[in-house]
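Ticket #4471: structure output looks truncated?

Reporter: J.K.
Steps to reproduce: submitted the chain below (182 residues) through the standard prediction queue, then opened the result file.
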Amino acid sequence: MLVLAFDTATQAVTVAVSDERRVLARLDVIDARRQGELLAAGIRQVLAEACVAGGDLDAIVAGAGPGPYTGLRVGLVTARVLGSAFGVRAHGYCTLDVIAADAVPAAAGREFLVATDARRRELYWARYAPDGARLWCAGRLAAGEQLAPPDPMYLRRPDARAPGAPKSVLGGTPAGSSAVTP
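Returned output as attached by the reporter:
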């Protein structure tokens, strides 16, 4: 099974192609402000290095966060579009779970936390068992459950707000002042 996987939910843009046994090609670039341009180029580069055509893929998996709005949208929309173009299913996967899988050896048999920068002096975090299973909903894949669709995990309200009433740009006199005429 050939899988194209990528994540744009952190400051890094990560892209990889793997089969069931090993990673065939991988690219990691740290630049939180250029996910759109880095992801497309990274996908092209990794597929070429792995000698894999888009039509050869069996699945696409994208990091679903938690993470910033723009980064998540770049990755998840790309997963959906490529899935549709290549005729394969696109899936979302928790970014923290992927980081945890890489951290298992360093945990040395102990429970551990994975945390990412949520900006504004906040963190996204989850607690993991020594084997890397998230405590709360571990074992979903091992039990044969379906992966989640590629939908974002937003954990707070967006910064954007609906605009207030428009201000007058006509030459009115502010309350409490007098107009001076020549």
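Triage note (M.O.): checked the attachment and the full token line is present. Residues 6 and 15 are 4 Å apart (CA to CA).
Status: closed, working as intended.
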